[in-house]
Amino acid sequence: MMSIIGQSLLFLEASVATNTSSIIELRNVGKVYSSAAGDFPALRAIDLTIQAGEFLGIVGKSGAGKSTLLNMLTGVDHVTAGEVIVRAGAEVSIHHLSENDLALWRGQTMGVVYQSFQLLPMLNLLENVMMPMDLCGLYHPRKSRERALELLRLVEIEEHAYKLPAFISGGQQQRVAIARALANDPPILVADEPTGSLDSVTADHIFDLFEKLVAGGKTIIMVTHDMGLSPRFSRHLTIADGEILEETSLAASGQLKIEPNPRQTQSEDEAGSGSWKMGNEDDADLGAAQTVLKKKDKKKKKEKKSGKAKQEQR
Length: 314
Hints:
The chain is α/β, with parallel strands linked by helices. It has helices at about 5-20, 65-75, 100-110, 125-135, 140-155, 170-180, 200-215, 245-250, 270, 280-314; strands at about 20-35, 40-50, 55-60, 80-90, 90-95, 110-115, 190, 220-225, 235-240, 245.
């Protein structure tokens, strides 16, 4: 029989191994939006551990809190409560960094892929990919250009390197956005509905690319409204009303209904028509919050009016 000391040592070794394999940890993370109508909790006490080398999918309806959660992970927005710890190299509690330090850290540690691409329309594709290198002080005239061409080759769009974003399709723009996110070789890639505005064939190609990146050692966190994609993730979670739910129990109860994204029906040619729109998932999260607050406000006014009428009748 193993001694108590021996058991303790084994437990300690197991704990150390577990801690070193986790690359992101969310501890009791909450986010509250404030407005004239009151406070709305967009995220409620989220506890989540993401392992290095995972392809994690976060599934939920529009306005469920998916993009808000990604903004907490990247430090784009501030937590109201809790802590986000990233262990990509040195351990960092990202919301304790100054804005300048956070921007530099994010540029070196996380690549972000937006649903709306957010390519700069006045720069060609090669220049768009090189931009993160310049922002992080890593620009070198020859090496940066070679690196950018290598990434465009990886996403199979090298022949369009000197075109402006307006002259390529939506699927091709998304590939450029992925190449740009990889510019500084970050260990973590965060993708916000990257296939939401693409046709099924192009979306499948993007997913194949993500799977290759994971096989190469990247950690990818992707949010999507499409439950049909869940088998392709190494792990997936469901988020609803700002809380992470047990996906299996939710599906078993028959309550899980993922509504189609209207942008899914948009053709690749329409997506590449040159229109340049900012992301809308954050607006969906905030819009859902504002809708709930407005309903509560109307209900209070109605009750107040009803009470006043009863008093006048008396």
